[in-house]
Amino acid sequence: MLPLEAFCCQNPDCPDAGIRGKRNLRRHGYSGHKQQIRGLFCKTCRKYFSERKGTVLEHSRLETGKAVSLLKHLRDGCGVRSTGRLVGVSPDTVVRYSRLAGSHGFRLHDELVAISPATKEVQFDEKWGFVFQKEAHCAPGIEDQGDNWDHTALDAEHRLMLAVVPGKRTAEKCHKVVSEVKKRTEGRTDLLLTSDEHAPCKSAIKAAYTVEDQHPEHRQRKKNQTKNARESVLCNSPKDP
User: Fold this and answer.
1) Beta-carbon count within 10 A of 115 CB
2) Alpha carbon 214 to chain centroid distance?
3) Which of 27, 44, 93, 173 has the fewest CB atoms within 10 Å around its CB?
4) Which residues of the chain have pLDDT under 70?
């Protein structure tokens, strides 16, 4: 059970809305079938709300353990149908919770990783997946199915995912993930930026920063060995004062 300092007022008209650790909340009874969900009271705006308000479990009818298990299976890479079989729910339920968790995760990420002042190196990459069915099996003109890519920006030193932009593998998505990194690092030019040889990603980095191409190394992977790994290195070159 989380301490009250982890919660914040959910009333948008409250002066303390969205601010944690203000000591403006107190416990106010319980709700739910087994009386396990705490009610909270804001002493600033004098409004009542459930501790689940604003979370993925708000209005959830699944048992808490089953809902958490469902989300953990999705986090570990299980598919929709396999997660439904393992948890004992329908695939539609899995899809509904994954959408709720995704939108909630983006909002929480914007709060917790708004700025990353300690980041010195960023690795850009793309992770392949598919929605409903693979691209080769999709009928022409269907945009919401087929291959889907997570365009990622990783601070490997601190194991911090700075940005994730899901969607088709397009130049627009590459520009978006690079602009997210620039925003979260406050436009600093002392970063080491690395990427694979996806041309739109390299162009996006050059468009967003003043960069100097540092003679990229070309390597190849063989049987999971890092011998000759293929990589392009882009190093920012600050403008002279």
Assistant:
1) 10
2) 30
3) 27
4) 210-241
Calpha distance 42→24 (Å, rounded): 6
- Give residue-wise pLDDT tens across range 175-229: 999 999 999 999 888 889 888 878 888 889 888 886 554 444 444 555 554 444 4
Tokens for 126, please give them: 């793309």
Q: CA 33 to CA 150: how far, in whole Å?
A: 39
pLDDT of residue 68: 92
Q: Count Cα neighbours of 168 within 13 Å in the Cβ-side half-sphere.
A: 9
Task: Give the side-chain half-sphere CA count within 13 A for 41.
Answer: 7
Around 157, how many Cα atoms within 13 Å sit in the side-chain half-sphere? 10
CA angle 104, 105, 111 (to 5 degrees): 95
Pairing of strands 192-195, 121-131: parallel
- DSSP string for the chain: ---GGG--B--TTSTTBT--SSS-EEEEEEETTTT-EEEEEETTT--EEETTTTSTTTT--S-HHHHHHHHHHHHTT--HHHHHHHHT--HHHHHHHHHHHHHHHHHHHHHHTS--TT--EEEEEEEEEEESS-GGGSPTT--SSEEEEEEEEEETTTTEEEEEEEESS-HHHHHHHHHHHHHHTTT-S--EEEE-S-HHHHHHHHHHS-EEE--------BTTB-TT---EEEEE-PPP-
Tokens of 222: 């063989």
Q: Which residues pair with 123 in a beta bridge?
A: 154, 194
